[in-house]
Specification:
- The chain has 8 helices and 19 strands.
- The protein is of the alpha/beta class.
- Strands 3, 4, 5, 6, 7, 8 and 19 form a 7-stranded mixed beta sheet that branches.
- The structure holds flavin-adenine dinucleotide.
C-alpha cells in the first residue's frame, strides 16, 4: 500500500486451502505467509527487502560519484530530487524504507496546494517518484544511510548494504519519526482515529466531537487551544501531575480559562477500541489505579518526534539538543555559534558543513508540513548550485 502496489491478502487457515490458491505446487518447506508475484513466482515468508528485490526495485547505483546525493524520499527529498535532476545535476536519492516518508502514511492530505479534494499520501509520493524517474534520478530504495564522512569536502555515505555513495553536495531530508503510544493495534488506527501531531487542518474535522490530545508540552497545548474552537470538548491526557513543568506559562494560563478543555493528570491511554476506525479509548489513572472508557473518534498524539539524524553523529554537522540539523542564520546565534568555527556565512538551508544542506522536518525549527518540505527541497537545490558554482 505504501508503495502503491495493489495486492490481495488472503487469510489461510490450513495448507490444503493454500494449495487451492495457486496453479503450481507449493513446496513442502514453505512457511506462511506465501507471496505470489505478478510473474507467478512464489516466495516463502519473505521480508520486505526480498519482496522489493524480486519486484526489481533494488538496484545498484549507476555512477560512482554524483553531483548531489539526497537522503530520504519524503516530500522534501522527492522535491529536491526532481528539481536537482531537472536542472541538470546528476542525482541519487537514497531511501531506507518506502517512497513518501510521513506524508506517504497519510490517508488524505487536504491542505496541499492544487488538490481541492485532497490527495492520498501514497498517490502524491508515487506521482513525485515518476517525475523524479522521468528526469533521470537514480533511486535506491530500502537502503539506510548509517554513517557519513566528509573527505575533501565531498560527502561519503555508507549504506546499510555495505556500499558507499560519494557526492559533491548533499541534501539531508531524513525527516522525523513521531513517538507513538506503544499500544497494541496502534498502527491499525493510524489516520482512522489516531493521528500524530495536530495541525490546524485537522481541527475543522472535529466539529462537535470529543477530542483527546496526548501530551503536556507546547505542541499539545497549542493543539488544545486550536481544537477547542471547533470541538465540543478537548481532553488533554498527561502522565505527570501538573502542566507547569512542560507547558509555557502563557499557554497554561489560556488553557485554564477555556471551559471546554479538561486535563486528566497522572493518566495515559492504555487501550484503543473500534471496528475498523477508532470508537473508544481506555484511560488509566496511575494514582487512583482506575481505568475508564471514553467514546471518541479523535486522538492526537503530541508527545514529540525524533529526528532521523544518527548518521550525522561525528560529522561536524551542528545539531540541536533534540538532534535536529541547525542551518543558516541559526548557526550564527547562541547557543549554536559555540558548536562550530564559522569559516563561511551559511545560506538559509546550509549546515555547518558547507557541502551539506538540510530540507524539511529534519531542520531545527522547521514548519512540519508537506508544502514547506516540498518548498525547502526545491530551495535547497538552488543553494547546491551556489555551492557547486563556487567550488567546482
Ligand atoms: C499521519 C500523518 C499525516 C500528516 N498529514 C499532513 C497533512 O495533511 N498536511 C501536511 O501539510 N502535513 C502532514 N503531515 C506532516 C508531513 O507529512 C511532514 O511534515 C512531511 O512528510 C515532512 O517531509 P520530509 O520529507 O521532511 O520528511 P519525512 O516525510 O519524515 O521523510 C523522511 C524520509 O527519510 C527516510 N529516512 C530516514 N532516515 C533515513 C536514512 N538514514 N537513510 C535513508 N532514508 C532515511 C524516511 O524513511 C522517510 O521516508 C502528516 C504527518 C503524518 C505522520
Amino acid at each position: 500500500m505504501r508503495s502503491v502496489v495493489t495486492f490481495d491478502w488472503v487469510p489461510v487457515t490450513n495448507i490444503d486451502f493454500l494449495r487451492t490458491l495457486f496453479v503450481q505446487d507449493i513446496p513442502f518447506d514453505f512457511i506462511l505467509p506465501v507471496v505470489e508475484l505478478p510473474t507467478g513466482k512464489l516466495l516463502s515468508n519473505p521480508d520486505i527487502e526480498t519482496i522489493a528485490r524480486n519486484l526489481g526495485w533494488i538496484t545498484k547505483p549507476r555512477n560512482v560519484e554524483y553531483d548531489v546525493s539526497i537522503f530520504g524520499a519524503g516530500p522534501a527529498g522527492l522535491s529536491a530530487a526532481v528539481y536537482a535532476a531537472s536542472e541538470g545535476l546528476s542525482t541519487v536519492l537514497v531511501e531506507r524504507e518506502a517512497i513518501g516518508g510521513q506524508a506517504g502514511t497519510s490517508s488524505r492530505i487536504e491542505n496541499y496546494l492544487g488538490f481541492p479534494n485532497g490527495i492520498t499520501g501514497t498517490e502524491l509520493a508515487e506521482r513525485a517518484r515518476q517525475q523524479a524517474v522521468k528526469f533521470g534520478v537514480d533511486i535506491l530504495l530500502i537502503r539506510e544511510s548509517i554513517k557519513a564522512a566528509f573527505v575533501d569536502s565531498k560527502i561519503h555515505v555508507d549504506l546499510i548494504d555495505g556500499s558507499t555513495i560519494i557526492a559533491k553536495a548533499n541534501i539531508s531530508a531524513t525527516g522525523v519519526i513521531y513517538r507513538k503510544l506503544d499500544l497494541n493495534d496502534e498502527d491499525k488506527y493510524l489516520d482512522l482515529g489516531v493521528y500524530y501531531g495536530a495541525g490546524s487542518s485537522e481541527a475543522a474535522l472535529c466539529a462537535n466531537e470529543h477530542v483527546f490530545i496526548v501530551g503536556g508540552g507546547n505542541s499539545a497545548g497549542q493543539a488544545a487551544l486550536n481544537f477547542c474552537k471547533h470541538a465540543k470538548k478537548v481532553t488533554m491526557v498527561i502522565r505527570g501531575s501538573g502542566l507547569e513543568a512542560t507547558l509555557s506559562y502563557y499557554l497554561l494560563k489560556r488553557i485554564q480559562t477555556v471551559n471546554n478543555i479538561e486535563v486528566l493528570f497522572d493518566s495515559k491511554i492504555t487501550a484503543l477500541h473500534g471496528n475498523g476506525a477508532l470508537q473508544e479509548i481506555t484511560i488509566t489513572n496511575s494514582v487512583m489505579q482506575t481505568s475508564t472508557n471514553y467514546p471518541t473518534r479523535f486522538v492526537f498524539v503530541c508527545i514529540g518526534g525524533k529526528p532521523n539524524t544518527r548518521w550525522a553523529e561525528n560529522t561536524g554537522i551542528v545539531r540541536d539538543a533534540a538532534g535536529y540539523l541547525v542551518t543558516g542564520a541559526d548557526l550564527l546565534k547562541s547557543p549554536f555559534a559555540n558548536d562550530w568555527k564559522p569559516t563561511f556565512t551559511p545560506d538559509f538551508l546550509q549546515t555547518s558543513i558547507p557541502s551539506c544542506f538540510a530540507a524539511g522536518d529534519i531542520r531545527h525549527d522547521s514548519v512540519k508540513r508537506v508544502a514547506s518540505a516540498v518548498g525547502e527541497g526545491a530551495m535547497a537545490v538552488t543553494f547546491v548550485h551556489h555551492f557547486l558554482h563556487k567550488h567546482y
